[in-house]
Write a structure and sequence with these properties.
With 468 residues, the protein is α/β, with parallel strands linked by helices. The protein has 3 domains: 254 residues, Rossmann fold, CATH 3.40.50; 85 residues, Four Helix Bundle (Hemerythrin (Met), subunit A) (Up-down Bundle), CATH 1.20.120; 47 residues. The chain has 15 helices and 15 strands. The longest helix has 27 residues. The model has no long low-confidence stretch (mean pLDDT 90). The protein binds one RNA strand of 75 nucleotides through helix 1, helix 5, helix 7, helix 10 and helix 12. This is Cysteine--tRNA ligase. InterPro entries: Cys-tRNA-ligase, Cys-tRNA-synt_Ia_DALR, Cys-tRNA/MSH_ligase, Rossmann-like_a/b/a_fold, tRNA-synt_1_cat_dom, tRNAsynth_Ia_anticodon-bd.
Length: 468
RNA sequence: GGCGGCAUAGCCAAGUGGUAAGGCAGGGGACUGCAAAUCCUCUACGCCCCGGUUCAAAUCCGGGUGCCGCCUCCA
């Protein structure tokens, strides 16, 4: 089976065929850096990071680019309000973006271009559109002539006539048509601006992505992704600009992730329910949050609240506990060599995992495969004989899956301090003498220090837990 | 008004014609000195409602109802 993905452009699931065999060019719309990212931004970053990781797992050489919108009205407003320099503010939130997303297991993109670093390319792009008659200057602004692009609306499924009916017509607009959108905007006197053939100004929002895609990935790319809300107008406008200029298809596949809601309500400033990742990761293990997000399909709407994250976290713990038990068994048991049947079973689980992921990156179903594995694996561990080869292969397999999902399944072990080891030994002796009062006293003592003891047929083992 | 999505157990969530996965929570049992971990078992006579097609429908068709998103530089 091959990778299949749902393409917004065609509104159906398609088999993935990259432009160039074995290589994937992928662009994801990044944030406007005027604040800490919220949990909705994070979902987008997390799910497309997962897509990227899976394509790499499938053997593709992926070039992954995601931008920062580092100049924009909102940034200017935020800087004004904070009394800070516009560029310093953007820089700060770019750093915070990296901090927050990396806590959530998101790998850095191959390139993180910024608007402010792409200005010559943006200006050249606009000049090209004017030269071809797709854009016009109007009192220092430049607008894209939407109706001059016949395919306008093909991505979002809107016709220009439908849009016309709902279009908001602003008073005093410099546009020739309400559907036209800005490529370049003249700056106000005190605003940050760049020199251009038309005015001191700055680019419109949509043009940056078109220019960056072209500059860093080429005229046609394989996958263009972003949040569902970007489909229109942002991506629709990108398509219009890019395809008008290059006369080539901009992207083969368009992926859009579903919206995240807070307690079944839209996240909005007016409701005051914005959840910032930076706050969240102080309260929760960030991996719980990532695991929670990946348990549902990326295109589905996702409700977010504390109970749901905790429930997902409990599931994650089940997997981690299983692997701790596997590791313990690996270290403490004699080898029972005949593991052929189980090695085959592992292969079949790997196949199931891949089938689920091939189906439009259905990480939720892929995780179900992990739980099925854990169930059978636990039964294996209960048996009297285990093969070291099988145990090692189980650990390798979860290591691999963890890499694809971006979740750490193996808990870091630190060295057991010698005095704690002594306590465990003392307790063992007490138990031998059936002095359970003393044994429990030691166990409780260690528990207070965050060390939990478990007695198994292979001896007493310990693990770190949060201090009670 | 236009475009799109979703309705399955207490909660999350699979399942696109063949007789309801998985996770969390909860009940019962086994194992254990007691725990922990684990296993077994129970919890949807029914998949928003009403019709229809079919030997057979959560799944297909028709008609409703409810919720949500976009059409406002919000991922």
């Amino acid at each position: 089976m091959a990778v299949q993905l749902y393409n917004t452009l065609t509104r159906q699931k398609e088999v993935f065929h990259p432009l160039e065999e074995g290589k994937v060019k992928m662009y994801v719309c990044g944030p406007t850096v005027y604040n800490y990212i919220h949990i909705g931004n994070a979902r987008s970053a997390v799910v497309f990071d997962m897509v990227r990781r899976y394509l790499i797992y499938r053997g593709y050489d992926v070039k992954y680019v995601t931008n920062f919108t580092d100049v924009d009205d909102k940034i200017i407003d935020a800087a004004k309000e904070a009394g800070e320099d516009v560029f310093a503010l953007a820089e700060k939130f770019i750093e915070k973006f990296h901090e927050d997303t990396s806590a959530l297991g998101v790998k850095r993109a191959d390139l993180h271009p910024r608007v402010t670093e792409t200005m010559p390319d943006i200006i050249a792009f606009i000049e090209g559109l004017i030269a071809k008659g797709y854009a016009y200057e109007s009192a220092g602004d430049v607008y894209f002539k939407t109706r001059s692009f016949p395919d306008y609306g093909k991505l979002s499924g809107q016709s220009t006539d439908d849009l016309q009916a709902g279009a908001r017509i602003e008073v005093g607009e410099r546009k020739q048509d309400p559907l036209d959108f800005a490529l370049w905007k003249q700056a106000k006197a005190d605003e940050v601006s760049w020199e251009s053939p038309w005015s001191q100004g700055r680019p419109g929002w949509h043009i940056e992505c078109s220019a960056m895609v072209k500059k860093y990935l080429g005229e046609t790319i394989d996958i263009h992704a972003g949040g569902q809300d970007l489909t229109f107008p942002h991506h629709e406008n990108e398509v219009a600009q890019s395809e008008a200029l290059t006369e080539e298809q901009m992207a083969s596949y368009w992926l859009h992730n579903g919206y995240l809601q807070i307690d079944n309500e839209k996240m909005s400033k007016s409701l005051g329910n914005f959840v910032l990742v930076n706050d969240l990761i102080r309260e929760y293990d960030p991996e719980k949050i990532r695991f929670f997000m990946l348990q549902s399909h990326y295109r589905q709407p996702l409700n977010f609240n504390a109970e749901l994250v905790e429930a997902a976290g409990a599931g994650l713990s089940r997997i981690r506990t299983f692997l701790e038990n596997v590791r313990h068994r690996y270290r403490t048991s004699a080898d029972f060599a005949d593991g052929e049947a189980w090695l085959q079973k592992i292969e079949s689980f790997k196949g199931r995992f891949m089938n689920e992921m091939d189906d439009d990156f259905h990480s939720g179903n892929a995780i179900t495969v992990l739980f099925d594995f854990v169930k059978e694996g636990n039964l294996y561990l209960q048996g009297p004989h285990t093969s070291r080869e099988v145990l090692r292969e189980i650990m390798n397999t979860f290591q691999e899956w963890g890499e694809v999902l971006g979740v750490t399944f193996f808990v870091e072990e630190d060295l057991l301090p010698a005095d704690i080891e002594d306590y465990i030994e003392q307790r063992g002796k007490a138990r031998e003498h059936r002095n359970f009062q003393e044994a429990d006293r030691i166990r409780d003592l260690l528990k207070e220090e965050g060390i939990e003891l478990e007695d198994t047929p292979q001896g007493t083992r310990w693990k770190r837990v949060s201090k009670s």
